[in-house]
Amino acid sequence: MGVFTEDTGHEQVVFCQDKATGLRAIIGIYSTALGPALGGTRFYPYATEDEATHDLLELSRGMAYKNSLAGLDLGGGKAVIWGDPDQIKTEALLRAYGRFVHSLGGRYITACDVGTFVADMDIIARETTWVTGRSEQHGGAGDSSVLTAYGVFQGMRAATEHAWGTPSLKGRRVGVAGIGKVGRHLVKHLVDDGASVVATDISEKAMEWTRTHHPEVEWVDDTTKLITSELDIYAPCALGGALNDETVPVLNAKVVAGAANNQLAHPGIGKVLADRGIMYVPDYLVNAGGVIQVADEIDGFNFERAKLRVSKIYDTTRELLAKADGEGILPALAADRMAERRMAEVGRLRSIRV
Ligand code: NAD
User: Fold this and answer.
1) CA of 32 relative to ligand 1 center, distance in Å
2) Looking at residue 1, what is its pLDDT?
3) pTM higher than 0.90 for the full model?
4) Dihedral sign computed on CA atoms, order 133, 135, 140, 146
5) Catalytic: 271?
6) CATH superfamily of 145-287+316-339
7) CATH superfamily placement of domain 12-61+74-138
8) Nearby residues of 65 by Cβ (< 8 Å), 6 or more positions away
9) Going by CA atoms, what residue is nearest to atom 14 of ligand 1?
10) Residues 66, 78, 89, 254: which is the catalytic one?
11) Mean predicted confidence (pLDDT) in 254-266
């Protein structure tokens, strides 16, 4: 995949290498139209450099759209470290990476992603100030899944209002696939609001946690059983690609709103959902709570301020669903257009000399 030959639209892509520690990282800045490019660092054992680059380019572009739609004064970027974190992650490697992040002078701000954790951000922060997702002891926002789940819940409330006339989840049957960090917080919001929750996960531990903390939640063995049972809302909270050619034809829900990134296995699947009368609320809109949480660190973290901002996901989702209906377009396209418009309109203001 070539940045120039395929015209991916990225502003900057930086390859970073430190042979002594084994660091091989790529930092991708898709857009700084709205501010510094914020996005996490994925530490993953990609099979090839091409695969790592492809993932980087997709992820960094996605962050620009997510941050724009979330109303943040931040552009979009992402980084990947190529390698198995269990084998090569060391203090020295993370600090070497921190120095490369610092060398970009704040054009890119990093955070956690798959394979990187709060403790890693604390280490990276010893070499650069351009890092979020640090621990609370180090002035950070801590675990971002708290507000990610809260944002998903807010998006779900707006979709419920759009579909059934009231934002209350009371009496709605909601299927949650993936009872991990986000899924656990989400289940609590749903139960507290009076929803009837059915859940699944491949992990025994997740099942035990659910049985202990939420005995009222119905448990099913696998995702196929979950999505073929009668649901009002389906919340994919595990891995990407949950909505695909196998699952969508048998999905028995009116609304999809969940935390997982990249839920649509391919762009055409949005139309298949719409043809089946299923309202899909774009993942990057409803799961922005985590990035809003860590973005708040930049000005000194304040949980209540971040939560207030995440609660706006309710308003944005309402606006987006109304716009999609009004223009006769899919919510995913409406989301892309809203994000692009803000990048163009607000981004242009920086050309006014002050
Ligand atoms: P997690 O790893 O804590 O939880 C994921 C859960 O999904 C695990 O319990 C795992 O066992 C389960 N799972 C994996 N494969 C499954 C399958 N085939 N069927 C059922 N369950 C399965 O991750 P998380 O932090 O809770 O994130 C969940 C999703 O939300 C991910 O896609 C993540 O990218 C996305 N997301 C997370 C955040 C955040 O702040 N944590 C922010 C934005 C988006």
Assistant:
1) 28
2) 65
3) yes
4) positive
5) no
6) NAD(P)-binding Rossmann-like Domain (3.40.50.720)
7) Leucine Dehydrogenase, chain A, domain 1 (3.40.50.10860)
8) 76, 284, 335, 336, 339, 340
9) 238
10) 78
11) 95
